[in-house]
Amino acid sequence: MKMPLSEIIDRYTITKIKSERTDEDVADELRAYKYEINGPDYAEKYSLIVSFIDRLYEMNAQLWDTEADIRKGVDMPLEEIGRSALKVRDLNSQRNAIKAEIVETFSEGFKEIKINYQKIDYGRN
Questions:
Q1: Please, are residues 30 and 16 in contact by the beta-carbon 8 Å criterion?
Q2: How far is CA 36 from the centre of its chain?
Q3: ∠ CA 94-99-101 to the nearest 5 degrees?
């Protein structure tokens, strides 16, 4: 699978959250992303990468929580669901801005990532 560093970091943080909040075994996927992030191509700017990881982790954790609230709130008033959906939109906008910063900072092409990725349905129909 080919992807830019911004996507690798984003998926790494999402997978890290998944490993912390679900019983799904994503160790291989985490290892594959971490291998690329820790690679020699980024050694000089590793502290900058860690900063991006921290920021995206926080943003993705907020998105995870907000989306979980929406899924749990089946009996939630439509107005509250609407507010939550707007929050998800705003958080995604901030998340995309961070990813754009990564692209701008590293201005690079795509990397080949070898992972055995399997999409899981977490109750979203």
A1: yes
A2: 15
A3: 95
pLDDT (tens digit, 9 = 90+) per residue, 43-77?
888 899 999 999 999 999 999 998 888 877 667 78
| 80 HSE (CA, 13 A, CB side) | 11
In the chain, where the domains are located: 2-112
